[in-house]
Amino acid sequence: MSTHEEPWQALLDTDGSAYTVHEHAAAHSVAERKALPFPWSQAVKTLAFTTPRLPLLLVALRADDRVDFARLAAAAGIGRAQLRTADTDLLTAAGLVPGGIPPISPRPGVPCWIDTAVVASRGPVFCGAGSAARTLEVRPAVLARLPRAHVALLHK
Q1: Fewest Cβ atoms nearer than 10 Å: which of 14, 41, 55, 101?
Q2: Is residue 4 part of a domain?
Q3: What does residue 133 show for φ and ψ, rounded to 5 degrees?
Q4: Is residue 26 included in any domain, yes or no?
């Protein structure tokens, strides 16, 4: 664990989950992320969306997968037209940083949808940890059992 505690880490600590936060040079591009010492096949990205009913909705997918918006909308119980990408102002207000969004929501009312391919991953996954210079290593089953986590087929 890191000495720099993020609000989402409290959920992992309360759960008693094993995890590691790796500190490294900031990685903003896909090429920079692929150069990190973590297996790209285990990389997970977290996307942020907004809807009229949900001010913020997180979605975790394998790094190379694309979200199927129709599946996401159906899973969230909304129409596809209601789904919008969260803008930088919304992310900043929520304390999130593009390129470092963790697939864990410490905020009530903010769900995190996790794609079935992430949960089916063997071994740990590597995902955002609050900044482009930090990576969370955690078992996918841990992510799936946390509060506000929902698992569904979400990739194309």
Answers
A1: 14
A2: no
A3: -105, 15
A4: no
Residue 14, domain member (yes or no): no
* Residue numbers of the domain that contains 50: 44-152
pTM over 0.85: yes
Task: Return d(Cα 73, Cα 79) in angstroms, integer.
Answer: 6
Over the stretch 111-143, which tens digit does the pLDDT of each residue have? 999 999 999 999 999 999 999 999 999 999 999
Do 13 and 142 meet the contact criterion of CB atoms below 8 Å apart? no
Handedness of CA 133, 139, 145, 150 (dihedral sign): positive
- Where residue 78 sits, what CATH number does that domain have? 3.90.960.10
Q: Do residues 119 and 126 lie in contact, with contact meaning Cβ atoms separated by under 8 Å?
A: no
Number of structural domains in the chain: 1
The residue count of the chain comes to: 156
Tell whether the model's pLDDT for residue 96 goes beyond 60.
yes
Nearest to 57 by CA among 148, 138, 152: 148
